[in-house]
Write a structure and sequence with these properties.
alpha/beta, Rossmann fold, 19% strand
């Protein structure tokens, strides 16, 4: 009996029956076919094409892993962030689109710093894949960007991304600002902020726990950064932090208690207060 070879449209329907989002299934199919840059429009134009059995088998295996919660970025080894193609694996967090809010804000606060003799100095704490630091360096090529992480595995991923993208970000291993020298115009960070007992952690088992959880209320690392930051900022410099969807008020209160100025929060594209920050007093 002759076996019917499925079409691209049919295997995408199979993926949907496993519970995959359409865009996830499309990205995994393009990856399995060795066409990661072809785009979703290409799939639509070729939806009646037959899929080779070996590619079909590989695609369904990827779909099973995605259905079990593994991020698409880990399955494909790729993730675009702020227009940059990053290489991603399980040593680092999968960069979220929400974090682009932090990059937007950082670019805004350093925008007035235009003296070519004194380029803006920025440090990205807990850089992970390097997403934030690399985006800032790409947008402000003259900036001096330092990326810090306590994980040597994460730094290896970030440094490889920087080398591949030819972006001159500097890297250092360290725990937040411990051992970091000098003063900066902006300190940015997307630190761990999930409470250690949060049930949502069960759905994130494929990602490094140390980059996700931070104490009973999720704010231990943010407290550390808020305390350390003034000694590492120029007068008037900014501290910008990403945090959980329900933590903005608590983070603003931490900043107020430490005597920061212009304490405020910024919303992501969904309208959630995703980042909070403040300015070091000028005097």
């Amino acid at each position: 009996m002759k076996t019917t070879t499925p079409t691209l449209a049919q295997v995408l329907t199979q993926a949907r029956t496993l519970g995959l989002e359409r865009i996830d299934a499309q990205m995994l199919l393009l990856h399995a076919m060795g066409r990661p840059d072809a785009g979703r429009a290409w799939l639509l134009a070729h939806d009646t094409d037959a899929l080779e059995p070996a590619v079909h088998e590989a695609f369904m295996a990827l779909c099973q892993r995605r259905a079990a919660g593994e991020p698409v970025a880990y399955l494909t080894g790729r993730k675009e962030f702020y227009g940059l193609p990053l290489v991603i694996d399980a040593r680092v967090l999968d960069p979220r689109p929400d974090t682009e809010t932090l990059v937007d804000w950082a670019l805004e606060v350093i925008a007035p710093l235009t003296d070519p003799l004194h380029p803006p100095r920025i440090v990205d704490l807990g850089t992970g894949s390097g997403a934030i630091a690399l985006a800032l360096q790409h947008q402000r090529p003259t900036a001096q960007v330092l990326a810090v992480d306590a994980s040597s595995d994460a730094l290896a991923v970030a440094q490889a991304n920087a080398q591949r993208l030819a972006l001159p970000v500097r890297f250092a291993r360290g725990h937040w600002l411990d051992g970091v020298e000098g003063r900066f115009d902006a300190i940015v960070s997307n630190p761990p902020y999930i409470p250690a007992a949060d049930p949502h952690l069960a759905a994130l088992t494929h990602e490094p726990l140390q980059a996700l959880a931070s104490g009973a209320d999720g704010l231990d690392d943010i407290r550390t950064i808020v305390t350390q930051a003034p000694a590492h900022l120029v007068p008037g410099g900014w501290l910008l932090l990403e945090h959980g969807w329900d933590q903005a008020a608590a983070v603003r209160e931490l900043l107020v208690q430490q005597g920061w100025e212009q304490v405020q929060s910024r919303q992501d594209l969904s309208g959630t207060e995703r980042c909070s920050g403040a300015r070091r007093p000028s005097a």
